[in-house]
Amino acid sequence: MAEANPMLSLDALTFETAQAALEQGCAAIRAGETVFDLGGIRAADSSGVALLLAWQRRARDAGQKLTFINVPSNIDALTQLYGLEGVLARS
To answer: Considering Cα of 7, then 29, then 19, then 86, what sign does the dihedral take?
Structure first.
């Protein structure tokens, strides 16, 4: 398994951080990263869930499978709220 992406040094996936996080994640995907460690995320909102889905689409479009590890419970709660359980790939 690939190592978790050390480049993603994010602590929030929120509306305020979404644009910068999108760019950071897309750069990591272009660099060949396939495992994103979300263990450092302390805050997330619906923009964060949309961001994770956008990263997954970018990876898929690049012919890669993106996997998330250490997904925080607040992101799990949001995916359940939106009926998206099982949509985020995990290891």
So the answer is: negative
The pLDDT value recorded for residue 1 is: 46
**Cα R_g (the chain), whole angstroms:** 12
Name the β-bridge partners of 12: 43
Q: For the whole model, what pTM was predicted? A: 0.85
Q: Name residues whose C-beta falls within 8 Å of residue 4's C-beta, 6 or more positions apart in sequence.
A: 35, 36, 37, 69
Sign of torsion, CA 24 28 30 31?
A: positive
Each residue's pLDDT tens digit, 25-76: 999 999 999 999 999 999 999 999 999 999 999 999 999 999 999 999 999 9
